[in-house]
Amino acid sequence: MITAFVDGPVIKGDxxxxxHATVLVEGERIVKIAEGNVAIPKDARRIPLDGRTLLPGFIxxxxxxxxxASPDPIxxxxxxxxxxxxxxxxxFAKQTLMAGVTSVRDMGGRNGVDLVLRQAVxxxxxxxxxxxxxxxxxxxxxxxxxxxxxxxxxPDEVRKxxxxxxKAGADIVKFMATGGVMTPAVEPGSEQLTEEELHAGIxxxxxxxxxxxxxxxxxxxxxxxxxAGIDSIEHGVYLDEEAVSLMVKHDIPLIPTISALYNIDxxxxxxxxxxxxxxxxxxxxxxxxxxxxxxxEAGVRVAMGTDAGTPFNxxxxxxxxxxxxxxxxxxxxxxxxxGTRIASQVLGLDKELGTIEEGKLADLIVVDGNxxxxxxxxxxxxxxxxxxxxxxxxxGE
Length: 397
Prior knowledge:
Elements: E1 2-11, E2 17-26, E3 29-35, E4 45-48, E5 52-56, E6 58-63, H1 73-79, H2 82-98, E7 101-106, H3 113-123, E8 130-133, E9 138-139, E10 150-151, H4 155-168, E11 172-176, H5 195-207, E12 211-216, H6 219-228, E13 233-235, H7 241-250, E14 254-255, H8 258-267, H9 275-298, H10 320-327, H11 332-338, H12 341-347, E15 364-368, E16 384-389, E17 392-395
């Protein structure tokens, strides 16, 4: 059956908006997009766009579906049975999809739950976003995320750890170049995996045709990762001119995950978040804001990623990141592109997703009103009227 989205504004995801366009979907793909009069088959399912806007499905480049966004999610996930983690993750996947996020990159799971969840979504067993997963994050002994990570020391052991993730079925390999906020007794700005260790792991991933990413807050760790050949920088709290210059030169994207620090800062210890995490958040916040602005002004590709699953960073509220980007100097169109076209590039799926183009997979959402005039519309679950994933309506009639 052909589905026709008829006569309305279409934000293509590439910086263009068509004011009165019709988009035809057949099977799982977009077969036509045009303004003006379009021949629509008589038996097509017609969806009028009157008063609504059609956009590409959003892509969250950094989530943790195994974490429940409780005040201390690492402690929670370690204390609960693995089966409970899996059940909760399936619910979080559905909530994410219903919010208009049709693809995600999961950046650290627990005991293979993320790998199985990806399989369940792919098979149609459960509803959820299209998933790329990293398996266990790779960190130094006692490094950031060690509680759910694969600890490794020295280039050879990091190489082995990368091979283990690839063997298990990871789509990407994630390394921990610096300390972070949610691990006690580590400093966010501290160097952790060395340049030599990162190079060994990244080289191994690239040999297998896998992309790599790094948690990197401190300047030294960011530079280590960039020199070692990393494919994306996650968080990037303490960027400097040298780091930004290398990111521009080698076209390395930044996934700032503003939502993570925003939610910790806004909720605080009163909501039960550990005091050490709140203290570190307040310490790094001004540097993070400066780094996001510096990267944006320099022309670094910035992709939407939320770190969903961290404290009060709820699955299904992912599109708050679009609003936060706008609040930090991005135009509404730039912020939307960060969650569509640019995010698809980060995932390596830009030939199939990220923009509304003929021949691409029909991941589409319909929103009441115009998010270019009010990006806050994207945070209203009721305003996300329809979600289509691969040509299949998964939300809306």
